[in-house]
Amino acid sequence: MTSKPIVGVDVGGTFTDLFLFDPAQNAFRTAKVPSNRGDEAVGFMNGLRALGGPAGFEAIVHGTTVGTNALLERKGAKLGVITTAGFRDVLEMRRRDRPNTWGLWGEFHPVAERDMRIEVPERTLANGTIHTRVDIAAVQDAAHELLSAGAEACAIVFINSYANPANERAAAAAVRAIWPNPHVSVSSEILPEIREFERASTTALNAYLQPVVANYLGKLEGALNQAGFGGRFHIVQSNGGIMSTATARGIPARTALSGPAAGVIAAAAIARAAGFENAITCDLGGTSFDVSLVTGGRMELAAQATIDFGLVIRSPMIEITTIGAGGGSIAHVDRGGLLQVGPESAGSRPGPVCYGQGNTRPTLTDANVVLGRINADRPIGGALSRLDVEGAKAAIAQHVGQPLGLDAMAAAEAIVRVANAKMAGAIRLVSIERGHDPQKFVALPFGGGGALHVGALIKEVGLKAALVPRFPGVTSAIGCVIADVRHDQVRTLNLSLDGLDSAALDARMVEEANSARSVVEAAGLPVARTDIRFELDMHYAGQTHTVGVPLPVHVIGGTTGVSEAIIRSAFEAAYQQAFSRLLPGLPIRIVTLRTAAIGIRPDFDLAALAPAADATLDAAARGARQVWFDGAWHAATVWSRLDLPVGALVHGPAILEQPDATVVVDPDLVARVDRFGNLIIERE
Amino acid sequence: MTSLDPVTLAVLKGRLEQIADEMDATLYRSAFNPIIAEARDACHGLYHAETGATLVQGTKGLPIFVGAMSFAVQAVIRRVQNGTPLEPGDTFIFNDPYEGGTHLNDFRLVRPIFRDGQVFCWIASVGHWLDIGGNVPGGYNPRATESHQEGVRIPPVKLIRAGAMQQDILDILNANSRVPNSNWGDLNGQLNALDLGERRLVQLIDEHGEAKLQSAFAALADRAAALMEAEIRTLPEGRYSFEDYLDNDGVVDERLTIALDMTIRDGRMMLDFSRSSAACLGPINISRATSVAACYVALKHAFPDVPANAGVLRPIEFVIPDDTVLGAGPPRPMAGYTETILRLIGVIFGALGKAKPERATAAPFGTINALSLSGQRRDGTRWVMFSFFGGGFGGNPETDGLHHANNPISTATIPPAEILEAAYPVMFTQWALRPDSGGVGQHRGGVGAVYEIEALSPGTTEVALLGERGRYAPFGVTGGGEGALTRFAWQTESGWDTPPMASKVVGVKIQAGQRVRLESPGGGGWGDPSKRPKAAIARDIRLGFVSPEAAARDYGYRE
């Protein structure tokens, strides 16, 4: 077992957060350095140096947004596509959708332009029969043509290759023999699943990211080598597991939600250690509020995500529900006289009115400042020395107060209430609307802003409590350190459940399990054990959507023991849970097999984060200040959050301050510090 | 009535919209036929206890139903007023297009929500069922001359009576469809949605009380009306006229006119369709309810910020005479209603563009091109592949039109070719964008698509198309040109054949190895083509959206 430090690095838009865990001392350290947009390696290395490394580190695990940013800003590679005759426009035709339900304006720019998409003679039918053998000479010509047009990466997508990849594999071999770099993505390797647009989009976006991510990782690895780092370097995937940099270079599309996934992993671990199996993570940023669900200690995964209009990545990803309500969201009264907060945002530049950077329309942050909830003399982040309370107040009075007939204070409170209602809606969406009892969930804010609102949210939605981690700002970096190693595979099966050949299915499952397991083992990180999870996508014959059916089977002695009866009862349980009405008598089909190999990492003792044993309530007290709650000023006690001892009880109204977050405890709530240093906020 | 503070109102509005959205999502996920599950041809909402007016509607539902559903609830309310007893636990079912709009495939479920022995409000669900009998599988019979040839017509009857499912009604429904299992699955999905909506709504009422919610309903309608009026006041006062045409009704080969005279005065808008063609023999009539709903869709696209409730229609006056194609009654056939409403939506865009040219949007492609292929598999079972296809959107002040989009009346996604090939004995030989189909302009229309499909069935494959825009192209605005026409053709032993009535045909038979080809229209162009930047034209040529010949002819472009 290792005894050298392991470090998590979360590179965000503004700051790079690092978390170091030293198993020898059972101790940790954190660091926060400015990110360097465009050259993230600089902030990355600065952060490592701030922690005294990287030469002596055992492993570095990284949550990155480089892939996401390249997609959103269309800054990927010059991409060429080789595809089946008749189908070069699949990427651009999408699923025949439009950007907005209402309003017909707007355009779409695919990641490969039309003249960079070349058709070749070949055709496979839906049943896997080869109708036309692939013309290899045409494939070679296409590759040369794309290269001479400047292509840096190539995606190969043939129709029905999920059913029989032979033509596509032959083409891939021919292209790889010619292509001057490893940036060739092949649809049957990336996503052997039915639906050509989703497969084409995932494959093309993957190829589009390959050079960007490879270049970025190469730069980091070069800098790490130079600095004498001899350990392992890994990347967090969108599914919350980590992978080797070799895998990340081949499947960079799996990094799309790397950073947020790491945060949810940590949130799940923190909640579980604190005694809560079910949590809703809340991340309040400048323009949006993101929530994710943790049930039974596990994060929920979605089958695909739309990164931007028409840019779909289909691969298991942490499920994030986003609404347009953040600290920078602008409050206004619409022409129907209704108060709205967001989705328009002042962002971080020019930012809220109180930043004094030129914006004159009030935001949620301005309301929090005016109500005394945010300390105007001690802004988070440290870039500004003081916030302009009077400016914020005047803007609220003018844009919200006057149209609604309210004074500035009442108007500020109204903004917070409407924003809270929107955030509560997002929480309801992932909990109550999916049949979960909110009483069984805690809200877990991470990032800086969520802790301001979390008390109100537990009241509004009826959640059990709020759990504010000891270091909300480094949650994602902690997630990097504790995340499991994971590899997901998918395969379209298209089988009838009635009369299922379970021996053949069993053999298939064992084969998938072995290949997924070998990817996890190749990552080379110490794991306690490797679990294999199987899930089938199933439906009643005739339905197009499927339900995910987790199978209660394991590979033991080279077999899973799967049977028709086991699958049927698992399907009926999953269908009933989703829709309440079973449809007895209708034939049932198995569409897809999903296999996940999860290398479980050794437990990380979160008690390492606990407050010092000699901390006292008195030493943490910072007096009191006036804060507006429920229509009146209240004298709220103020505390230095990190100096509070284990077991401390703080009754609302109170404000708890720490360098990267402000926690608001409403008058009818009480907060206590648990043995890990988390703050648990409950009703009195 | 209690008056509500604006903050509570905003909170309740969010909660109510969430309930309707959640009903939508439940049906999409559990529906059987792809027209609901993939194409989202369904809708849910809450409706006023006495008037049936839309209180809240889901944001993901098929836009056209947003306006049509209140007519369906009104049809049930009329029944009750005429003596049909109503009790808690009742649910009505019907598909009568003359009572509640659209066409026979759209099955409506309407359920009262009782509080203290009184109807508090109604909740309703509508979804497009795959087949309800009639001469043509799927219901799109372009030759129908009366409703009875299109399928079975069910008036509002109780499917659930005080909580008890009426098996005899289910038996009647099952006996009248070619695909009873599919319909049964969809019906269950709709019931799931209603059950869930009822649970959530009752919870909300328990939390806030009846009086507070009733005040919220009233206030939200008032605010919607105020918002719509504010939008209307941004248009210069005056009278703006616009006409567009349908190729024919599928039975008589004569064009039909959809004509609008729009008057803007004192914050009100009058939409007068009196100059439109008389009701027709073929299946492209629509009822008044459908016409009003279509107007709502057009206005919501033009002013996306107005909310989805009945208050929006308060500042609007409709003149839709009963004897026109837009105000038809029984037994006029209506299966092809989509084509007529698309033209109606187009003329509203056209008239608004005249009122305010700087905000004008050119016509979108304007047809659903309902294409059905059917036959028998080797094992003798019957198959019907039925799908709608996409086309280009119009150019607009901000951008070129979007390529290959869905119709403004829907948010439908197209089924993937691989899903269709896995389900039916067909092979797509082309699934591509269509060059030179976008209208010319400073901002070009988006291009349509070419779909070419080869029959693999050992026997005969039957083909039917109910389309439009075969003769009258999507219009451009402020100097922009027209999009390309629909083209449809099928292979015979002697070459390619085309429909005698341009865009509608039934009974075409092709053999294995023969193909059909559908080319959909692009959108109209926006603005003077001579103002299109040279670089944009060069790019269009490089990408193949515009051929060099067309660039020279339409833009005077030379390298």
From TrEMBL, chain A:
SUPFAM superfamilies: Actin-like ATPase domain. It comes from Falsiroseomonas bella. This is Hydantoin utilization protein A. GO terms for molecular function: 5-oxoprolinase (ATP-hydrolyzing) activity. Residues 199-488 form the Hydantoinase A/oxoprolinase domain. It holds the Pfam family Hydantoinase_A. It comes from the Bacteria. Residues 7-177 form the Hydantoinase/oxoprolinase N-terminal domain. GO terms for cellular component: cytosol. GO terms for biological process: glutathione metabolic process. Residues 528-676 form the Acetophenone carboxylase-like C-terminal domain.
From TrEMBL, chain B:
GO terms for molecular function: 5-oxoprolinase (ATP-hydrolyzing) activity. Residues 5-529 form the Hydantoinase B/oxoprolinase domain. GO terms for cellular component: cytosol. InterPro entries: Hydantoinase_B, Oxoprolinase-like. GO terms for biological process: glutathione metabolic process. Pfam families: Hydantoinase_B (PF02538). It comes from the Bacteria. This is Hydantoin utilization protein B. It comes from Falsiroseomonas bella.
